[in-house]
């Protein structure tokens, strides 16, 4: 399988096992859902009527006052009372094994390549970490909403991209299914492609 370079000068031979898979939508959905669920803090906490302070004495007599029956001033019906179904800290983590995770990444990369949304470049060389320089380069390639995947951290590229609202730069090691699905186009360096093929074998 071959991917065209964004510069238009040549093609890059890539692994069919990584970039030529069929799109497995149920697997991709499950992995993305699990990935996002893992990021949830799950620290929400409320107090039930058994945990709030007070409420030891019956507010008034059961009969004869003309008011509704009340056994505690910490009932959920009262201001300052406990919560009826109090939320407690919980873990939202869903189990996804390594084979499933890598399969979802391969499936997403293959779909991006099939729909011509996956682009490859020899590299992005900037004279300085200026947003204007990167913006003009992306404009020349007709890229606006794009995820840039590099093999190693590039300080100039990071500085240039951080102020562009629809551009994100990540390393191969930080690649995740949510990022792959979030952008219109994905731009990868040749080195990043080779590293991905090694990781996803």
Under CATH at level 1, the class of one domain stands as Alpha Beta
Can you say what the CATH homologous superfamily of one domain is? Ribosomal protein L4/L1
List unreliable stretches of 5+ residues.
Answer: none
User: Sheet with the most strands?
Assistant: 4 strands, parallel
Strand-helix topology:
Elements: E1 2-4, E2 11-13, H1 16-19, H2 25-38, H3 98-114, E3 118-121, H4 131-140, E4 146-150, H5 155-161, E5 167-171, H6 177-182, E6 185-189, H7 190-199
Parallel strand pairs: 3-6, 4-5, 4-6
Antiparallel strand pairs: 1-2
Helix pairs in contact: 2-3, 4-5
Can you give me a brief rundown of this structure?
With 201 residues, the chain is of the alpha/beta class. It has helices at residues 16-19, 25-38, 98-114, 131-140, 155-161, 177-182, 190-199, and strands at 2-4, 11-13, 118-121, 146-150, 167-171, 185-189. Strands 3-6-4-5 form a four-stranded parallel beta sheet. A two-stranded antiparallel ribbon has the order 1-2.
Word description of this protein:
The chain is of the alpha/beta class and 201 residues long. The protein has a domain at 2-23 and 96-199: Ribosomal protein L4/L1 (Ribosomal Protein L4, Chain: A, 3-Layer(aba) Sandwich), CATH 3.40.1370.10. Helices cover 34% and strands 12% of the residues. The protein contains 7 helices and 6 strands; from the N terminus they run E-E-H-H-H-E-H-E-H-E-H-E-H. The strands form 2 sheets. A 4-stranded parallel β-sheet has the order 3-6-4-5. Helix 5 (155-161) links the parallel strand 4 and strand 5. It is elongated, with a radius of gyration of 27 Å. The mean pLDDT is 93.
């Amino acid at each position: 399988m071959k991917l065209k370079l964004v510069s238009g000068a040549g093609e890059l031979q890539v692994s069919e096992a990584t970039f030529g898979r069929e799109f497995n939508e149920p697997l991709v959905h499950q992995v993305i859902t699990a990935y996002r669920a893992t990021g949830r803090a799950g620290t929400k906490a409320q107090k039930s009527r058994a945990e709030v302070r007070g409420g030891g004495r019956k507010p008034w007599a059961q009969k004869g006052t003309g008011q509704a029956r009340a056994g505690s001033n910490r009932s959920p019906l009262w201001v300052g009372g406990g919560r009826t179904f109090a939320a407690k800290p919980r873990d939202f983590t869903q189990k996804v094994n390594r084979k499933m995770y890598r399969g979802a990444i391969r499936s997403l990369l293959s779909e991006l390549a099939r729909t011509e949304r996956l682009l490859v470049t020899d590299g992005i060389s900037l004279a300085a970490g200026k947003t204007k320089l990167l913006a003009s380069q992306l404009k020349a390639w007709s890229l606006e909403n794009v995820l840039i995947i590099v093999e190693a951290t590039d300080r100039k590229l990071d500085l240039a991209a951080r102020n562009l609202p629809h551009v994100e730069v990540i390393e191969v090691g930080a690649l995740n299914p949510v990022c792959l699905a979030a952008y219109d186009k994905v731009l990868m360096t040749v080195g990043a492609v080779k590293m991905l093929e090694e990781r996803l074998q």
